Amino acid sequence: MEKLSINACPVCGSTHLKRVMTCTDFYASGEQFELYSCEDCGFTFTQGVPVEAEIGKYYETPDYISHTDTRKGAMNSVYHYVRSYMLGRKARLVAKEAHRKTGRLLDIGTGTGYFADTMVRRGWKVEAVEKNPQAREFAKEHFGLEVKPESALQEFAPGSFDVITLWHVMEHLEHLGEVWQQLHEMLTEKGLLIVAVPNCSSYDAQRYGEYWAAYDVPRHLWHFTPGTIQQLASRHGFIMAARHPMPFDAFYVSMLSEKHRGSSCSFLKGMYVGTLAWFSALGRKERSSSMIYVFRKKR
């Protein structure tokens, strides 16, 4: 199996890299992967992940529920309840930050299509792209969405979209620099880029260390903080216009992290830690388990 070897930091270009942690793939394989960090800017990434063409098998598990619709078990029930709430919140955030109620939107990594469907029903003209064929089929059957494969990103003309969203997708994408360049080209000059990613400087990340569920190796290649994603965006012609915490993520991530640690009563312990994380992020939103970042093009 061919593996990706990262020799220079994609954020600052430094070659001063150090190993910081060993994490386990708790979902699919049980394999271990090394996390490395840039000594100059602090950006963290997973070293030695399978290349894009070969990583598919690490997603092929019913436990990876972002591409399923099961409600079995307490954690899955919480996931679906929170998702329903967050769909409305995301739609309102898009309209508020974009200063418009409708427009042209591209949702990259749309998964099973819930967000894309939400925006269509609110009057937006939506294009949706998803790598997973089962997820695309789900979106078609349940929402009537014609979700395009990943290759469709090459077909969109420059300036095609008023808003581009990536909800927990950026951390999966191998060709990070190329992706940001492409996003810049596809947006209109006053367009909006909205990126949601886990925050590895969060309260729960510090508490759980190698068991933190949002490291999710090898599926998560990049591990962002508010500082490193802002630096990366700036390198590719964007400025950060706003950032918003995703406090609910701490509950779900903490439950999974407790499960990874083999804790008894992982649901209750996860709820307790999630509550601590919630209060931690109230005073300092940059400590939130996940963050939503809003970017605009530099002028």
Automatic annotation (TrEMBL):
CDD domains: AdoMet_MTases. InterPro entries: SAM-dependent_MTases_sf (IPR029063). Pfam families: Methyltransf_23. It comes from the Bacteria. SUPFAM superfamilies: S-adenosyl-L-methionine-dependent methyltransferases (SSF53335). This is Methyltransferase domain-containing protein.
